[in-house]
From TrEMBL:
Tagged with keyword Zinc-finger: yes
Family matches, as Pfam families: zf-C3HC4_2, zf-TRAF
Record keywords: Coiled coil, Ligase, Metal-binding, Zinc, Zinc-finger
PROSITE patterns: ZF_RING_1 (PS00518), ZF_RING_2 (PS50089), ZF_TRAF (PS50145)
GO molecular function: ligase activity; zinc ion binding
Signal peptide range: none
RING-type domain span: 18-56
Zinc fingers (TRAF-type), renumbered ranges: 101-144
A biological process from GO: regulation of canonical NF-kappaB signal transduction
Cross-referenced SUPFAM superfamilies: RING/U-box, TRAF domain-like
Coiled-coil residue windows: 192-243
Protein name: RNF41 ligase
Gene name in the database record: Rnf41_0
């Protein structure tokens, strides 16, 4: 959707009008056939069509290009009224700078910044409205430290608010203690399981060492028995040698 042509001062060249909405080009793109469109207009058109709305030549989104530089320069130099003219703004500036002006225009209609307030007000009157807005917040004058809305003044009770806050803090503390307790129990269970596992591993290693020692002792006894038999055989052989 382009800029309303009625906002412009002086003559606007036909080539600077969108071929779809017929308003002055906004964020323009150009087809290979050199017809120009607002970006939003041509994208919306190509959802349902595949040709140029002016000469019916086939076009695709990928074929769209930025406007020629000389046309962009002509477009940016056009002079137009601020969109807030109906509210009293008399500013006339170039199309190139209109967005910057309108973002800061004192006649722009903006929303009140207080939560819950639906008032739309001119930017220049915002401070005055905030001073009297029924949704403005302030610190309780009785010293409880709470921030209250003006509409809640008659309902605010310091003692009740502090009691509620105390209950919330108490509940939060209980929850945190329970969480810490569960976490500690979980860690202890994990350490206990780890120790039991380690104990089982150590016990198995001890049994394996006992088994190895038993086999070694058996081997030693076998070696000693073999040594005795060998000694006896040597002694017998020595006796037989002496007899011969």
């Amino acid at each position: 959707m382009g800029y309303d042509i009625e906002r412009f001062v002086g003559y606007v060249n036909e080539g600077l009008l969108c071929s779809i909405c017929r308003d002055v080009l906004e964020d323009p793109l150009q087809a290979p056939c050199e017809h120009a469109f607002c970006t939003a207009c041509i994208h919306g058109w190509l959802v349902h069509h595949s040709n140029c709305p002016e000469d019916r030549q086939v076009i695709d989104v990928s074929l769209l290009r930025p406007l020629y530089r000389y046309m962009r320069n002509d477009l940016n130099r056009l002079q137009l009224h601020c969109k807030n003219r109906e509210y009293g703004c008399e500013m006339v500036c170039s199309l190139e700078s209109i967005d910057r002006h309108e973002r800061e225009c004192e006649y722009s209609q903006i929303s009140c910044s207080n939560a819950g307030c639906t008032v739309q007000i001119e930017r220049r009157n915002l401070d005055g409205h905030l001073a009297v807005c029924e949704y403005r917040s302030r610190e309780c004058p009785n010293g409880c430290g709470y921030t209250i809305l003006s509409v809640e003044d008659t309902q605010h009770n310091c003692v009740a608010e502090l009691r509620t806050e105390l209950e919330l803090l108490r509940s939060e503390m209980i929850c945190r203690v329970e969480e810490a307790k569960h976490e500690m129990e979980s860690r202890l269970d994990s350490q206990r399981r780890h120790m039991v596992q380690k104990e089982s591993i150590l016990q198995n290693e001890i049994e394996e060492l006992k088994s190895q020692m038993s086999r070694m002792m058996s081997d030693v006894r076998s070696l000693m028995a073999a040594e005795r038999q060998h000694r006896q055989e040597l002694e017998q052989a020595e006796l037989e040698k002496r007899e011969l």
